[in-house]
Structures are given as structure tokens and as C-alpha cells.
């Protein structure tokens, strides 16, 4: 052994395999088997002085030539032994097993040379008759293919379970089985599983015949079937067929593509038609009936000539007739929002955020470009929150975005919830990484080893750190900009305290800051509360939350969460300190919190406040709080310049008061166009100034939230009036927007009471849910009951795969419920539940 085996060390975490001396690898150069002196003799003869003669090479006594078939059998036997040696090394088998396999390989090579008169060459397969039976090797090409197909099958099963929203335990079990299969594949083949690289395998095909092979013909049939399904989908969309017909056709197309890949090992490509029994070109009539060309040609011609027929509509459901796109009227543009919020919420939302210039779509699904107007809103939230957490003693920091697999899986319960959404880096350039690296879905496992290093004594506590960063969670549900994205911006704070009481105080302080973000900045009413056992943060003691309500969708949405982790993570990561009050050397584990808010806030703000004209942005977070638009006809360029100068002067004056103002002096757009543009972008206050306003020293104020117009005097010449009038108007807009949102929330929260039986209460629960309301009802806080409520409340409702659930979810246990729990309410709202009621809990459909 040149290099002995070494176990994994603490620096590289990798084992060093044993390296044996002089293992033949199939090269044609023979290794001398006699002593060193004899082996070196020919070399000495060649390097002697000029006069010396070169020794003639000895004539090899070749063995009698073997029949071609025997040579092939011997070659395959050596190859099989070579495969066995490589597989044993890859699997890190015991040294004696490897040595025995190497000896067999050397013996078979010696036998090959003795019988064929040639050295074995792995790259030169002899031609000849039927091969001999395979040597006792494990694996081989056929085995590799079987292993690959097994992993591929398990991967498909995992994807199907996720799409079908199967129970978490089933998905986890399937994922574990997939990982085990991948591990087995690598152990037996020496390669990482690659879904795009199907190994060659199986018996060699028969000698090529003049007719195309059945495999090629089968590939072609599959390709044509998928192409046909794709055309059917396009035809349905072009005909604006009902949604259920299109969905059925798309499902069939996806199944067809999956079957194509399973049977051919390749992704379907519409531009790459497989070779096979191809139909001849339509312009040339075939003259031969060989391989059925004539019959195929006639069939294709008949199909092409037949008129396309629409699939029959399903009579069961009453579908809304698809809206026909209307051509714009004369003088109209299509720059504004065309969909109605109450009629087509998804289309309205998409049009609003794109036409108002908040985002651009990106070529990676679920990822979006935040343009300056939307990022500016995030900056206002960030500035407010950052200032307040610094007042609490929190310091900002930054930790790496990459997480090792070992670190991520250290806290099993914690990572279980994130496992299906974790994105992994597996390759650098063309090189596979020795160990996959995760992109952070959250940073507990990244940050806490550092906390453990920094915490030695109670004097090191509390530790309060926060980072503003991005995270990646590979959502399988419908990605929606701001609301559900695969990459998003957030802040995540992590703190450690000596006592539980200190930690619990901070939990509520942070939650109240989140409430202020929504209510004071974004003018959105919330319901603060505590998550149920099922919905709490995995690995934590409990979770607090602020829940918002979107009337147009009839759904709640989680606004932000503040978690108390207890000592769960500190015990896992050894975040401990010496507690002198309990005696010298006595160690205590820290009590921890974590808390976060994301760019989802922007999406909630849009859903709650925006209308059919576009955005309605609260003044406290608006990029421009006031836009000044010159309007009205001017007789001369001098009058026009005078008007523009007055608007610019008002902009500068308002800016000096700390008001974010902008004068729109574009001379290529008419005032009406500008009015619509700024209404679409949601600027809270528009000030219109015309020639007559200049003369009267007045201006027209137009509120975006109500579109109310009011004329104010003294605005252009008296700074004090301008400041007070504008600030008062902005304050009123902020207050009124919150009042409207609060009213919507209060009117859509229903308190359902139970009695000795909950039959009537459950009927009331389902009726309220069907109307898009949130329900507060007695609940036992038992996870199986929560699953049952969700299942029963969604019974009979069709939901598109990946779309938000139609069942009721436990949103939170409100700190201030609409009605306190009564002594008579001893029955849980869940039908058939016999558990003791614990609290009034809020349920509803949720994003």
C-alpha cells in the first residue's frame, strides 16, 4: 500500500482511500515480472556508448490464434472483472475483497494473453461470434440502467406527491426513499445520478436491417403523440375554450411528455423529430409501399385535410363565458388596468403591478425584478423597522447564504418543514461538488454556531443580531409576485437571553413593531395572535403572528411572525453560559427568539388598497407623496414657462418641508394622460395648477384614495399654508385608508359559538367560509382536528393543482378575540371532536 487508509479528519470531513501499488489498468505496456536487474538490462544496452550495438528485440512466442468468438468471450470476461474492481473501490469495500478481485483480474489478463497472443486492451473489443456468459461481476451497463430507472421512478413519485399536495409524512418518506436510491446508485456506479444522462444498457441490438428498428419507430410514435397533444392545447386556447377543457388537455400533454421521457430517456423537443418510420413529405407522393409508407402518407393526408373539431364542453358546470378582448376605442390606449378587481383578481393583480411599474418578470419562474417604485416601499419599511430594533439594542450583521448539508440537517424537526423547498448547489462549472450546498431557506443553522462561540458567560448575554438579506424557498405552489415567490427579501432577527422572561418580553416587542408596520405605515388592519401547535415554527416553543385580510379574495394572509424558540436550538448548538448564581461551573442554556418580515408586505398593501384604476399607496411609504401637474391652456410660451416655473417652485418648497414631491413637467404628454398615469401609480395626492389658479393663487387637490377634488387658496405664495394644507391632507389620507381597511376586516370576521353539539355551529362556520369571511370559534388546538376541519370545509370544491387551498386553515389564536370563550362553549368546532376546548381560534382561507 502506497497510501494507507485514513478516516475523515476535522478539516476536510473526507476519508483518504487506500492506494495499492502497481494495479494494472489495461494498458498495453507490459510490467516486467522478473527482478529489477533483469528488467533494466535492455535499457542499459540502449544507452551505452555510440559504438555499441542495439540489442534486437526478442521474438515473442505467440500462442496459437483463438477463434474470434473465443477471443471476444475472453475479452468480456476481463472487462467484467475490471468493472468489479472499480465498483468495489467506489463502494470502499474491505481491503481483502479488493485484493481478491485484483488477483482475479490479473489472472484473467494473463489467461487472455496466453490464449490470444495479445495484451488485453479495454478500448479494443475483438470482433466475433456470440459472447461468453458474463463473468461474476456486479453491475455493468445493464445494471446501471436499471438503477437509473429506479431513481428516476422515485423522483417522479416525489414530484407527483408534491403536486397532489399529499400529506407531509408521505412526501418526507418518498424523499428519503429517493435519497437512499441516489446514494445506492452512486455506490454501485461510481457516479452521481443525473436525470438528463440515461446510461446505455441492455442487450446489444441485432445486426442492422434495412427496415427501421422497433425502438426508433416507438420513439417516433411517442413524439408524434406528444406533438398531437400539444396542438390540441394550442387549438383550445386559440378558441378560448372553457378553463376545465384546457386544463384537461394540458394534463394529458404533461402526462404524454412524462411518458416520452420515461421510455426514451430524453426530454421531448418539438424541433427534434426522432428518426424512424417517418411519413414522407406531403409534397411528394410515395411510390412504394415499403414499411407502410403509402398507408401512413394517406392517413396523414386525410387527417390534415379534415377540419379541426372542438372538444365537446362538459355540461356539468356553469362556466362564465370567456371575455372577448375588445379592440380599444378611438383615442384610447391600453396603458391602464383593464381587468376588474372583483371579477378577475389574478389578472387585475398582474396588470396592476406591471403597468404601475413595480416589477418586471424574469426568466426563472417564481423570481421577479423589483423596480425602484416597489423597492422604495421596502426601503421605507426597512428604515422604520431598523431604527426601532436598534433602539431595542439589536445590531445588524451578515451571514453567508450557503449552508452545508450537515449544518442544515442538524435540527431535524426544524428542517423538516423546509426540506421540500430547499434549493441545492450541486456543481461548480463542470465539476460535481463533493457535498451539495443549500441556499439558505432561513439562517438558524448558519448563525447559531457563531452564537455558541460568542456566549461563554452570562455577561455575554443578551446577543441580539439582525440581518437584511434574501432567502430562497423553492415553492411548488403557484408563484405570485410579492405574495409567494421563490426568492424574497426579508429581515431575520435572532436573539439569545439568559432568562425566559427576558426572551418573552422581546417576542411581544417585535410583534408590536410588525403591527405598526402594517397599521401605521401600510394602513392595513391586522389580527395579532398566537399560532396553533400545528402552525407554529418548527423547532420553536411558540409563534406569534399578525394576520391581515384581503376582501377581494376572501382570504387571510400571514403578515409577519415572532417566534420564541425556548432552549431547543441552544441545546442543539450548545449556546450555553456559566450561571454563577447556581454555583461555579454550572452551565445553563440560553433562551432564544427569531423573527422576520418580508417583501410580502408590498403584495398585501396592493391587494388591500388598490382599485380598478391602479395602485393606492399610503402616504407614509409612497415614493412621491405629492405630484404637481400643470394643466389648462396657455396662450404663449411665456405663459407656459410661467406656469411650469410656478409648479417647480411649489415642488422645491414642499421638499424643503420634508414632503416627497414631484412636478411632472413633461411637455410631450397631455394633462389628462398624466392624471391617469399618476392614478395608476397610486401617488396619494395630486395638485393641479392652471393659468387661472396662478391668477387666483390657488390649486386643486385630488386625493387618490377617494378621487375627491378640493380647491385650496394661498398654496402658491404662502409657504405656511402650503405646508399645513398638504401635510393635513396626507395625514387624512393615511387615517382614512386605515379606517376603511379596519372596517373591511371587522365586517368580515364572524364569531361562531358552539353548544352541547356543534352541528348548527359547523353549518354556520361553512356558510361564513363560503362567503369569504374569517371565523372565530372554540377549538381544542389538536393537529388532527385542524386537518379534519380543512378537509371537511373544502369537500366538493375543485381546486387547480398548486393553487391556494379552499379549505379553512387555523390562522391564529387572537389575543383579543371578537368574543371571549364562554363557559357554555365546551365543544370544539370540529365535527365529532371530544377534546377539551382551549381557546377561541380564528379560521379562514389563506394564501
UniProtKB/TrEMBL annotation:
<keyword id="KW-0436">Ligase</keyword>
<dbReference type="InterPro" id="IPR017449">
    <property type="entry name" value="Pro-tRNA_synth_II"/>
</dbReference>
<dbReference type="Pfam" id="PF00458">
    <property type="entry name" value="WHEP-TRS"/>
</dbReference>
<dbReference type="InterPro" id="IPR000738">
    <property type="entry name" value="WHEP-TRS_dom"/>
</dbReference>
<feature type="region of interest" description="Disordered">
    <location>
        <begin position="190"/>
        <end position="217"/>
    </location>
</feature>
<dbReference type="InterPro" id="IPR006195">
    <property type="entry name" value="aa-tRNA-synth_II"/>
</dbReference>
<dbReference type="InterPro" id="IPR045864">
    <property type="entry name" value="aa-tRNA-synth_II/BPL/LPL"/>
</dbReference>
<dbReference type="InterPro" id="IPR016061">
    <property type="entry name" value="Pro-tRNA_ligase_II_C"/>
</dbReference>
<keyword id="KW-0030">Aminoacyl-tRNA synthetase</keyword>
<feature type="compositionally biased region" description="Basic and acidic residues">
    <location>
        <begin position="114"/>
        <end position="124"/>
    </location>
</feature>
<dbReference type="GO" id="GO:0006433">
    <property type="term" value="P:prolyl-tRNA aminoacylation"/>
</dbReference>
<dbReference type="InterPro" id="IPR036621">
    <property type="entry name" value="Anticodon-bd_dom_sf"/>
</dbReference>
<dbReference type="InterPro" id="IPR004154">
    <property type="entry name" value="Anticodon-bd"/>
</dbReference>
<feature type="region of interest" description="Disordered">
    <location>
        <begin position="306"/>
        <end position="337"/>
    </location>
</feature>
<dbReference type="InterPro" id="IPR033721">
    <property type="entry name" value="ProRS_core_arch_euk"/>
</dbReference>
<feature type="region of interest" description="Disordered">
    <location>
        <begin position="30"/>
        <end position="67"/>
    </location>
</feature>
<dbReference type="InterPro" id="IPR002316">
    <property type="entry name" value="Pro-tRNA-ligase_IIa"/>
</dbReference>
<dbReference type="GO" id="GO:0004827">
    <property type="term" value="F:proline-tRNA ligase activity"/>
</dbReference>
<dbReference type="InterPro" id="IPR004499">
    <property type="entry name" value="Pro-tRNA-ligase_IIa_arc-type"/>
</dbReference>
<dbReference type="GO" id="GO:0005737">
    <property type="term" value="C:cytoplasm"/>
</dbReference>
<feature type="compositionally biased region" description="Low complexity">
    <location>
        <begin position="199"/>
        <end position="217"/>
    </location>
</feature>
<feature type="compositionally biased region" description="Low complexity">
    <location>
        <begin position="127"/>
        <end position="139"/>
    </location>
</feature>
<dbReference type="InterPro" id="IPR002314">
    <property type="entry name" value="aa-tRNA-synt_IIb"/>
</dbReference>
<dbReference type="Pfam" id="PF03129">
    <property type="entry name" value="HGTP_anticodon"/>
</dbReference>
<keyword id="KW-0648">Protein biosynthesis</keyword>
<feature type="domain" description="WHEP-TRS">
    <location>
        <begin position="218"/>
        <end position="274"/>
    </location>
</feature>
<feature type="domain" description="Aminoacyl-transfer RNA synthetases class-II family profile">
    <location>
        <begin position="375"/>
        <end position="618"/>
    </location>
</feature>
<dbReference type="Pfam" id="PF09180">
    <property type="entry name" value="ProRS-C_1"/>
</dbReference>
<dbReference type="GO" id="GO:0005524">
    <property type="term" value="F:ATP binding"/>
</dbReference>
<feature type="compositionally biased region" description="Low complexity">
    <location>
        <begin position="54"/>
        <end position="67"/>
    </location>
</feature>
<protein>
    <recommendedName>
        <fullName>proline--tRNA ligase</fullName>
        <ecNumber>6.1.1.15</ecNumber>
    </recommendedName>
</protein>
<dbReference type="GO" id="GO:0017101">
    <property type="term" value="C:aminoacyl-tRNA synthetase multienzyme complex"/>
</dbReference>
<keyword id="KW-0547">Nucleotide-binding</keyword>
<keyword id="KW-0067">ATP-binding</keyword>
<feature type="domain" description="WHEP-TRS">
    <location>
        <begin position="143"/>
        <end position="199"/>
    </location>
</feature>
<dbReference type="InterPro" id="IPR009068">
    <property type="entry name" value="uS15_NS1_RNA-bd_sf"/>
</dbReference>
<feature type="domain" description="WHEP-TRS">
    <location>
        <begin position="70"/>
        <end position="126"/>
    </location>
</feature>
<dbReference type="Pfam" id="PF00587">
    <property type="entry name" value="tRNA-synt_2b"/>
</dbReference>
<feature type="region of interest" description="Disordered">
    <location>
        <begin position="114"/>
        <end position="140"/>
    </location>
</feature>
Amino acid at each position: 500500500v502506497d497510501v494507507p487508509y485514513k478516516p475523515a479528519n476535522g478539516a476536510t470531513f473526507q476519508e483518504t482511500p487506500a492506494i495499492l501499488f502497481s494495479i494494472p489498468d489495461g494498458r498495453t505496456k507490459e510490467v516486467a515480472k522478473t527482478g529489477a536487474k533483469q528488467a533494466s538490462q535492455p535499457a542499459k544496452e540502449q544507452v551505452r556508448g555510440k559504438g555499441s550495438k542495439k540489442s534486437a528485440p526478442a521474438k515473442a512466442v505467440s500462442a496459437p490464434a483463438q477463434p474470434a468468438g473465443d477471443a471476444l468471450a475472453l475479452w468480456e470476461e476481463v472487462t467484467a472483472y475490471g468493472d468489479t474492481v472499480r465498483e468495489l473501490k467506489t463502494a470502499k469495500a474491505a481491503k481483502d475483497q479488493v485484493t481478491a478481485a485484483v488477483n482475479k483480474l490479473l489472472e484473467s489478463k494473463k489467461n487472455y494473453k496466453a490464449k490470444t497472443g495479445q495484451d488485453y486492451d479495454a478500448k479494443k473489443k475483438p470482433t466475433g461470434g456470440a459472447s461468453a456468459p458474463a463473468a461474476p461481476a456486479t453491475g455493468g451497463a445493464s445494471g446501471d440502467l436499471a438503477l437509473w430507472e429506479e431513481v428516476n421512478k422515485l423522483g417522479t413519485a416525489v414530484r407527483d406527491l408534491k403536486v397532489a399536495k399529499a400529506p407531509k409524512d408521505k412526501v418526507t418518506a418518498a424523499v428519503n426513499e429517493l435519497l437512499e436510491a441516489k446514494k445506492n446508485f452512486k455506490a454501485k456506479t461510481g457516479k452521481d445520478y443525473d436525470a438528463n444522462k440515461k446510461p446505455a444498457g441492455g442487450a446489444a441490438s441485432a445486426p442492422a436491417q434495412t427496415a427501421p428498428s422497433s425502438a426508433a419507430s416507438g420513439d417516433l410514435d411517442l413524439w408524434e403523440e406528444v406533438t398531437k397533444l400539444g396542438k390540441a392545447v394550442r387549438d383550445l386556447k386559440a378558441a378560448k375554450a372553457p378553463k376545465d377543457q384546457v386544463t384537461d388537455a394540458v394534463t394529458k400533454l404533461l402526462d404524454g411528455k412524462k411518458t416520452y421521457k420515461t421510455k426514451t430517456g430524453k426530454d421531448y423537443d418539438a424541433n427534434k423529430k426522432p428518426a424512424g418510420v417517418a411519413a414522407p413529405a406531403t409534397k411528394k407522393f410515395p411510390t412504394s409501399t415499403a414499411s407502410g409508407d403509402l398507408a401512413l402518407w394517406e392517413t396523414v393526408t386525410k387527417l390534415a385535410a379534415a377540419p379541426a373539431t372542438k372538444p365537446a364542453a362538459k355540461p356539468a358546470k356553469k362556466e362564465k363565458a370567456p371575455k372577448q378582448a375588445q379592440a380599444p376605442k378611438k383615442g384610447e390606449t391600453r396603458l391602464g388596468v383593464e381587468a376588474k378587481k372583483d371579477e378577475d383578481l389574478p389578472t387585475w393583480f398582474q396588470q396592476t403591478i406591471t403597468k404601475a411599474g413595480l416589477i418586471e418578470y424574469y426568466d426563472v419562474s417564481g423570481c421577479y425584478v423589483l423596480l425602484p417604485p416597489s423597492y422604495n416601499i421596502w426601503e421605507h419599511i426597512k428604515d422604520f423597522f431598523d431604527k426601532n430594533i436598534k433602539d431595542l439594542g439589536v445590531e445588524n450583521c451578515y451571514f453567508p447564504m450557503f449552508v452545508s448539508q450537515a449544518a442544515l440537517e442538524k435540527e431535524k424537526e426544524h428542517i423538516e418543514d423546509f426540506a421540500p423547498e430547499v434549493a441545492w448547489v450541486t456543481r461548480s462549472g463542470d465539476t460535481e461538488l463533493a457535498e451539495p450546498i443549500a441556499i439558505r431557506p432561513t439562517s438558524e443553522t448558519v448563525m447559531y454556531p457563531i452564537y455558541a462561540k460568542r456566549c461563554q458567560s452570562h455577561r455575554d448575554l443578551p446577543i441580539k443580531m439582525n440581518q437584511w438579506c434574501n432567502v430562497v424557498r423553492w415553492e411548488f405552489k403557484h408563484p405570485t409576485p410579492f405574495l409567494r415567490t421563490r426568492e424574497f427579501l426579508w429581515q431575520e432577527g435572532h436573539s439569545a437571553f439568559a432568562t425566559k422572561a427576558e426572551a418573552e418580553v422581546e417576542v411581544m416587542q417585535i410583534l408590536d413593531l410588525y403591527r405598526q408596520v402594517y397599521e401605521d405605515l401600510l394602513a392595513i388592519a391586522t389580527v395579532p395572535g398566537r399560532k396553533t401547535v400545528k402552525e407554529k415554527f418548527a423547532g420553536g416553543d411558540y409563534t406569534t403572528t399578525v394576520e391581515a385580510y384581503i376582501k377581494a379574495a376572501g382570504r387571510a394572509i400571514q403578515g409577519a411572525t415572532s417566534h420564541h424558540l425556548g432552549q431547543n436550538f441552544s441545546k442543539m448548538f450548545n449556546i450555553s453560559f456559566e450561571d454563577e448564581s447556581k454555583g461555579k461551573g454550572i452551565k445553563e442554556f440560553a433562551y432564544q427568539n427569531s423573527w422576520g418580515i418580508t417583501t410580502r408586505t408590498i403584495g398585501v398593501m396592493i391587494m388591500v388598497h388598490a382599485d380598478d384604476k391602479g395602485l393606492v399607496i399610503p402616504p407614509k411609504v409612497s415614493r412621491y407623496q405629492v405630484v404637481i401637474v400643470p394643466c389648462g391652456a396657455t396662450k404663449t410660451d411665456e405663459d407656459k414657462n410661467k406656469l411650469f416655473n410656478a409648479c417647480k417652485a411649489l415642488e422645491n418648497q414642499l421638499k424643503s418641508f420634508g414632503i416627497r414631491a414631484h412636478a411632472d413637467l413633461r411637455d410631450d404628454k397631455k394633462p389628462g394622460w398624466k392624471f391617469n398615469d399618476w392614478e395608476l401609480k397610486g401617488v396619494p395626492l395630486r395638485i393641479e395648477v392652471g393659468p387661472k389658479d396662478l391668477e387666483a393663487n390657488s390649486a386643486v387637490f385630488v386625493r387618490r384614495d377617494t378621487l375627491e377634488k378640493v380647491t385650496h387658496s394661498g398654496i402658491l405664495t404662502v409657504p405656511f399654508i402650503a405646508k399645513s394644507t398638504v401635510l393635513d391632507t396626507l395625514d387624512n389620507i393615511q387615517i382614512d385608508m386605515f379606517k376603511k381597511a379596519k372596517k373591511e376586516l371587522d365586517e368580515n370576521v364572524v364569531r361562531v359559538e358552539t353548544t352541547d353539539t356543534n352541528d348548527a355551529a359547523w353549518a354556520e362556520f361553512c356558510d361564513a367560509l363560503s362567503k369569504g369571511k374569517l371565523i372565530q370559534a372554540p377549538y381544542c388546538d389538536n393537529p388532527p382536528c385542524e386537518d379534519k376541519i380543512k378537509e371537511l370545509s373544502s369537500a366538493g370544491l375543485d381546486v387547480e393543482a398548486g393553487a391556494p387551498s379552499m379549505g379553512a386553515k387555523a390562522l391564529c389564536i387572537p389575543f383579543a378575540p371578537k368574543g371571549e370563550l364562554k363557559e357554555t362553549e365546551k365543544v370544539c368546532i370540529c365535527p365529532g371532536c371530544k377534546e377539551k376546548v382551549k381557546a377561541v381560534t380564528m379560521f379562514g382561507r389563506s394564501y
